[in-house]
Amino acid sequence: MPDVLSIEHLTVSMHGRTILDDVSLTIRPGEFTGLIGSNGVGKTTLLRAILGLQRYESGSIAINGQPRTAQLDALGYVPQKISLDSDVPLRVIDFVTLGLDAERWGLRRRRRAQRDHVMATLESVGAAHLSTSRLSELSGGEQQRVFIAHALVRRPSLLLLDEPLANLDPRNVQEIVALLHRLSRDHQVAILLSAHEMNALLPFMDRVVYLTGGHCASGPTNEVVQTDVLSALYGHHVDVVQVHGRVFVIAEPNEATDNLPEHPTLTVR
Amino acid sequence: MHWLFEPGLFTSAPVRTALAVGTVAAVVSAVVGVFTILRGLAFAGHALTDVAATGGSGAVLVGASPLSGFLSGALIGAGAIAVSEGPESHHREIATGVVLSAATGLSALLLYLDATTTATTGVTQRVLFGSLFSTSASTVPLTVVLGTAVLVLTAVIARPLLLTSLSRELARARGIRVTLVSSAFLLIVAMAVGLSALTVGSLLSTALLVGPAAAAVRWTARIGRALLLASAIGVLSTWLGVVIAYDSYNWMPHQRSLPVGFSVVVVIVTVYLLSAMRTSGPRGDHRG
Predict the structure, then answer these.
(1) pLDDT tens, A60-75?
(2) Does B173 touch chain A (CB under 8 A)?
(3) Pairing of strands A158-162, A75-78
(4) What is this model's ipTM?
(5) Yes or no: is domain B13-278 CATH 3.50.50.60?
(6) Closest C-alpha among B244, B190, B186, B226 to residue B30
(7) Does A173 contact B at CB distance below 8 Å?
């Protein structure tokens, strides 16, 4: 089975500045991958390049071994921000159904099977009970579940999520990450989730992609979260220590630690 | 019912024309208005009404029909906004503001020329605030054709338009041509504004575009129901406004009627205020 996502030597520049420099990574079917880096390092740019929304100077991106244009349905996407005015007349079930047919012209009567499929998708994210609620009136955590259902409804093989945990309280962060992990296992959908704070992801991540200064280090979590790899990545000495089977990443207080994720101490399973 | 319907109301040819044209304009404006609110385009909608006024005053100057003036003005304005707007919403606001300013200035000049160089009386009042009772019966078929065209176009782009309104980024990721859909919708708004300008005048057509839709989206969470409810509010407001304006001939001193545009707008604003009062607390229709 080919890799769900294969990026080779990707370079992206914007306004004369190199955002991504020779980035390569692969994601296999059903893998849960964290795309980690501080604000402005190019996480969104990388996701947009995968989606075909960002031009790149060189390199290649393949989805399921094929060019992206041939695999449009293979990608599900949850953008960083969807602003909803409180009066938007749209129910949860209607929004998720748009995930099936939004690009089609004209009106068509929706079939029973389509409705059942949408309800099953909502059920899989624990939001079936919200199906007739006004989307704009849901809480942040509830909306995030619905956005995930919208992205999942076509049964993509790769789900891209841009900072989905931002603005959620710790309990909702835990619930959303656990949900995504379960979806990746149950539906064999690979997940690439960007975040600048990785603590909540560590117990679930199969792979990690660190982005900093335009470069990336990627691989299985326990291979990337190593003293030498992280020290080279951040240009500063970083200690990775194991305590009772858990891994801690410790950075010395130094100006160089400005490049590290918000919390310099990270835990890995 | 004589207290409500004055004698001769339904046998009056101008009233029948007013009701027919007003009904088409109300339905079209309501349907387009729901998407206008969804997309946060109320300001652009208002700007297009001002540009329609420029077209209307230009039409009077050259002796063309007001409808053709309103439509061509609004369509040119929509084209100007579509061409000059950038990818972000604040770019659209700036482009809309520039087009609005230019159109209002030109409108002032054209209305001045209308008043000083033509024999037409009350032209400023007619262009800006409408003259539904003086609409020619021959306008009805054209209004119906144009209204149907707007509704069909809206139905064709409805789904891409809906997703684009919620998130341009998400729509682009789904392969939707966001610029094409947005430009097509601006042209649809322009046509709706042109039609409603005929009913309540160019300046007040914002009320027909935004008012019924704004009230409807507060009452229901279902887009289909919002479209139907907005249409119903628009049509009933127009009919009631026409009746009030007609009847006011007998109430007002010196036997003068209230302007139709005024009475229609008063009903729309009343309905909106009622909906705002009803839904100011937790929504009653939370479950749709």
Answers:
(1) 999 999 987 777 789 9
(2) yes
(3) parallel
(4) 0.85
(5) no
(6) B226
(7) no
